Amino acid sequence: MARTKLLLDCDPGLDDALALLLAHSDPSLELVAVTTVGGNVDLASTTRNARALREYLGFVDVPIAAGAAEPLVRIAANAAHVHGEAGLGNVRLPAATLPASDRHAVDLIIETLRAAPGEVHLVATGPLTNIALALAREPRIAGWSASFVIMGGSFTRGNATVAAEFNIYADPEAAAAVFAAGWQVVMIGLDLTLQAIATPRIVDRMRRLGPLGADFVVPLATFWADPNDADWSGQAVHDVCAVAYIARPELFRSRSARVDVETQGQFTSGMTVVDFAASAPNAIVPVEIDVAGFWDYVHDAWQHAADGHPND
Ligand code: BDR
Ligand code: CA
């Protein structure tokens, strides 16, 4: 059976790293390209991490291209306080030996989608700068992508600020352009991802995956808190949900909505304003996830990777 192709634009990042693991390990998916953007940490670090992950996880034939270091018009924010100074928490991977592509991420996105119209799903798990630049250069990518899924936004409250989720907050002008591009954006926001956190029970399950679980998944999924702390309730794996949506959309209950991005507000910059009653929707907003089904799916995919992991 043909595998579902995806291009992942990301800023690894603890949960981006786990999303890459899922994209690589689910046998029903084919990761065709990875592009990086400055976000959780700076572009040099997200690209270094993506390259190191490629060799550690073993998707060595997949091109990686670096993209935008800065948001379209703003000073870069980062989330090193969440992901660690290097971006992968306490996980230290061997330095990569394979280089990044000579191409810019924007070119790789456009070329990949142009080469196979309707076949490649575009997934963005960082600030939307690369996607906005690609749309500005080649608006037809909106029609060429099989679907476009982001992790970003929310319909209740944010995490970077009370109003704004980090990926949208980091580059609201890019996000506004992306939502206005005439395609249907699947917005996997915080209201969804916070339903499917890696609880201590899930972490125990992942620890049993062997070295890949113990050395990689568990430290990434527990960086924010001590799992031996009786009060620790778990850690979000936001970006994993976006990749899961490509493979298993039936795990999600979704509503159509009109999403606009606030770029002006003194207190609300980067807020996604979600109107579920709008007559002209531009987005699909998953609102509920089958949590047990999600973790079964993710566990089985990661088990598949663990079984073939080169470092086992
Ligand atoms: C999003 O922001 C980043 O810190 C995470 O990697 C995720 O993409 C969650 O708000
Ligand atoms: Ca991310």
Can you offer a commentary on this structure?
The structure is a single chain. With about 300 residues, the chain is α/β, with parallel strands linked by helices. The chain has one domain: Alpha-Beta Complex (Inosine-uridine Nucleoside N-ribohydrolase, Chain A), CATH 3.90.245. Helices cover about 40% and strands about 15% of the residues. The protein contains 13 helices and nine strands. It has a nine-stranded mixed beta sheet, with helices on both faces. α4 packs across α5 and α10 runs antiparallel to α11.
Report the principal-axis shape.
globular
Q: How much β-strand is present in the residues?
A: 15-25%
Distance between the termini: 28 Å
CATH architecture: Alpha-Beta Complex
Instruction: Please name the fourth-level CATH homologous superfamily.
Output: Ribonucleoside hydrolase-like
**Number of separate helices:** 13
Bound molecules: beta-D-ribofuranose, calcium ion
Whole-number tally of structural domains = 1
Which class best fits the helix and strand makeup?
Answer: alpha/beta
Order of helices and strands: EHEHEHHEHHEHHEHHHHEEEH
CATH class: Alpha Beta
Assembly state of the chains shown: single chain
Residue runs with pLDDT of under 50 for 5 or more positions: none
Spatial strand sequence of the major β-sheet:
3-2-1-4-5-6-9-7-8
- Proportion of helical residues: 25-40%
What is Rg? 18 Å
Biggest sheet character: 9 strands, mixed
Total beta-strand segments: 9
What value does the average pLDDT take? 96
What is the name of the CATH topology? Inosine-uridine Nucleoside N-ribohydrolase, Chain A
